[in-house]
Amino acid sequence: MKPIKDSVHDYIALGPEAEALVDTPTVQRLRHVKQLSTVRLVFPAANHTRFEHSLGVYHLADTAIGHLDVDADTAAHLRAAALLHDVGHGPYGHQTEEVIHRRTGNDHDDVGWLLTDPDRPVCQALEGLDLDPERVATLVAGEGRLGSLVSGELDVDRMDYLSRDAHHTGVPYGAIDHGRLVRELRLENGHLALGEGNVATAESMLFSRALMNAIVYRHHVSRIAGAMLDRACEQYLDATETGIESFRRMADHDLLVALAEHVPTLGRRLEHRDLYKRAVWTGIENVPREITDVDYEDERQAEREIAEAAGVDPAAVIVDIPDRPRLKESSTSVVVDGVVQQLEDASELVRGIRMAERARWRLGVYAPEEQTQSVERAARDVLGLR
Predict the structure, then answer these.
(1) Around 353, how many Cα atoms within 13 Å sit in the side-chain half-sphere?
(2) What's the pLDDT band for 69 if we cut at 50, 70, 90?
């Protein structure tokens, strides 16, 4: 066992399989992809990486496996999936995921293309450990009997990033009892559930996630920067010969340099934190339902119409309409009086959190500061905002 000192879990002991996988370029690349992408423009200390996070997820998965009745081969595949769960992320993590999805149809947890390529060292390492790359990729996607341990309502991914992000941003809201969570996991009717007496434990994770969403993950500055990054990446891919496969293997600093060179208007603004401002920032009750359900191309069309009505350059307007709020964690399985239930059926708190998430939802329209007033008037007309 190789011990690694971690800022959240103290010492993490890597087994032989993990040591072999950590040394591959695929995993080492994660040292250069920040966990919180544009959030660090708000919280300067949030410079931790997806490499650190991957080690933490491996550690929690290993701990959970010790409390579950699984055979040694299954345990080895689960540990590998936990360590490799983020290798499909592009630069800036989730902030470029939509760009990649629009051009490939793949999300970050669709890692079969990466793990099963026999020319890649990570595939060779897995096969050298007598692990099936296809099976590992399936677990990363959350499929199979125990895939939800890596990607599901009770996954160790969420347990680690809430604790880690809270630690590095310096906010107290993501603190959860991940030690109890991983030790109370049970296999009930072939599915993961929290054992008897853990409704409050599940509620605490849901509550922490809701607070972190409101205060950290969906902070308006991060959303503005993320929307600017999305548009800059699309322009960069359209203006250069960079293929999407090369793009999604970039590191954060590679992308920032490329954007500053090839898309200077947005790229340099991102580099220097010279961000657009909020022209519109309004709740779901003020937005027609058909607007909340628009797709990316509809957003871009709205940007063009708003820019024309405001008499500004189309590149000066960004429309940002997030998905309707949802609580994936509310379907967490918990055992109550010997019966497996979903958390939303066992907890009165879930309804309140669901209402709070809806109340915090915001549609944003962003523009350079000197153009926000004209863009606001045009956006309200074009989008039919109340």
Answers:
(1) 24
(2) confident
Domain segments of the chain: what residues? 2-217
Cβ proximity of 100 and 122 under 8 Å: no
DSSP 3-state assignment of 348? coil
What confidence score (pLDDT) does residue 166 get? 96
- Any alpha helices (H) in 129-219, and if so which ranges? 133-140, 156-169, 178-183, 199-212
Q: Give yes or no for a contact between 127 and 148, defined as CB atoms under 8 angstroms apart.
A: no
**Ordered strands of the 339-342 beta sheet:** 185-188, 191-194, 333-336, 339-342
Q: Any idea which architecture 2-217 has in CATH?
A: Orthogonal Bundle (1.10)
Average pLDDT, the chain: 94
Burial class (CB in 10 A: 0-12, 13-18, 19+), 30: buried
| Residue 327 confidence (pLDDT) above 80 | no
pTM: 0.94
Give pLDDT, residue 261: 97
Residue 317 has what DSSP assignment?
-
Q: Which two tokens stand for residue 122?
A: 């990570």
Contacts with 218 (C-beta within 8 Å, 6 or more apart), sequence order: 322, 360
**How many residues are given for the chain?**
386
* Pick from 232, 220, 229: nearest CA to 365: 220
| Whether residue 304 has pLDDT greater than 80 | yes
Check if the beta carbon of residue 357 is closer than 8 Å to that of residue 210: yes
